Amino acid sequence: MRIDKYLWCTRYYKTRNQATEACKKGQVQVNGQVAKPSREVFPSDEIRLRKNQIDYQLTVLEIPESRVGAKIVGLYRNDTTPEEALQHQEIQRMAQSYYRKKGTGRPTKKDRRNIDDYLDGGD
Q: CA 73, CA 10: separation in Å to the nearest integer?
């Protein structure tokens, strides 16, 4: 099976086109070599891919016939991604939402007055 189709079947990418683009950009490696989208994948191959600033590592266990459900993806691959990589993403997500929750918009009039008071020294 082609590497782009395998990554789509195992739900690493939402569309096959996204998987193909990732391969073209050099974000996918098979057994330590940058893989073109047409590279064939076999059981026991080691795949490394970079997606959303995380370096995923996985081992191919079997080749699926077509796209599989999220519950049975574990039958076709063994995810060996280090925990530090996943924790790093969680820390980034929390740091971005620390000051203001997403979707709250611009500061209110009261927020602006509080900011002005703080900057002026609390007069």
A: 6
